[in-house]
Amino acid sequence: GVLMLFGTGIRGEVSVRLGETGVAVRAIMPVEDQPGVDVVKLDIPPDMRGDFRVALTAGGVAANEVRITLR
Questions:
Q1: d(C-alpha 54, C-alpha 68), whole Å
Q2: CA 64 from centroid of its chain's CA atoms
Q3: CA-CA distance, 13 to 44, in Å (whole number)?
Q4: Is the terminal CB of the chain with fewer CB neighbours within 10 Å at N or C?
């Protein structure tokens, strides 16, 4: 599956962890109709289920963590 994260100022090297698991970043791009907003698309393994803490780091700066549930 794919998980999309939205934010502002997402530049440089990006890494994302769901809990203790690093996930592959598929793409980082601006949102065309929303100036200043960026989207990060992640590849999520199909067997990954449960509650997770999402930790995104961009350009060496950690974003605020969020919690998600994958079903």
A1: 7
A2: 11
A3: 19
A4: C
Q: Pull the structure tokens for residue 17.
A: 């962890």
For residues 40-52, one letter each, b for 16 or more C-beta atoms within 10 angstroms of the residue's C-beta and e for the rest, the string is bebebeeeeeeeb
Q: pTM for this structure?
A: 0.88
> Residue 24 to residues 4, 35, 61, 70: CA-CA distances in angstroms?
12, 25, 18, 16
For 47-69, write each residue's pLDDT tens digit: 999 999 999 999 999 999 999 99
Q: pLDDT for 28-46, tens place per residue? A: 999 999 999 999 999 999 9
